[in-house]
Design a protein that fits this description.
This protein is mainly beta. It is built from 1 helix and 3 strands; from the N terminus they run E-E-H-E. The chain is elongated.
Length: 54
């Protein structure tokens, strides 16, 4: 299961949440610090490691 990063628009708290791909579009999260529902998904950069050399 992927881990998604979120940021609260009210207090600025950054936090992570583990969720299924299917529930990512419909999940309703609350900020763990202030309880606000005004949270926004933060795109996370990733690196794909392969066994082939370029």
């Amino acid at each position: 299961m992927p881990t998604y990063q979120y940021r609260c628009e009210k207090c600025g708290e950054a936090f992570e949440h583990v969720e299924h791909l299917a529930e990512h579009q419909s999940v309703r999260l609350r900020c763990p610090k202030c309880g606000s529902e005004a949270v926004q998904h933060v795109p996370t950069p990733f690196v794909a490691k392969t066994s082939r050399k370029s």
